[in-house]
Write a structure and sequence with these properties.
This protein has 86 residues and is mainly beta. The chain has one domain: Thrombin, subunit H (Beta Barrel). The chain is 0% helix and 57% strand. The protein is built from no helices and 6 strands. A 6-stranded antiparallel β-barrel has the order 1-2-3-6-5-4. Strand 1 and strand 2 form a beta hairpin.
C-alpha cells in the first residue's frame, strides 16, 4: 500500500490538500482513495480528470469513481516526470 499526503488540482483549478491511499499501484494503473472533506465542493469538480501531486513528487492523473463527504474512490495513472530545468 502506498500512503501519503498530497495536493489535488480540481477542474476549476482549485487545490485541496488530501491524504492518499493506493492499495494497487502498478506501473501504469493505480487504484485507491483520497481522504478529504468534500461536503462543500460542487460535485461537478469531479466530473473530469483531476491531478494529484504526491508528496514524493509523483503526479497522478485520476478519475473519481465514487465519493462521499469524507473520501473519493479513484483510479488513475502516473504521469511522466517533467524536466523542470528545460
Amino acid at each position: 500500500m502506498l500512503n501519503g499526503i498530497g495536493a489535488v488540482v480540481l477542474r476549476s483549478g482549485r487545490a485541496l490538500t488530501v491524504e492518499y491511499q493506493f492499495g494497487d499501484h502498478q506501473e501504469h494503473h493505480w487504484i485507491g482513495y483520497l481522504i478529504v472533506e468534500t461536503a462543500h465542493i460542487d460535485p461537478s469538480e469531479f466530473a473530469d480528470k483531476i491531478l494529484l501531486h504526491c508528496d514524493e513528487g509523483t503526479a497522478v492523473e485520476l478519475a473519481v469513481t465514487d465519493w462521499t463527504d469524507r473520501h473519493m474512490a479513484v483510479v488513475g495513472r502516473p504521469l511522466p516526470a517533467l524536466d523542470r530545468a528545460a
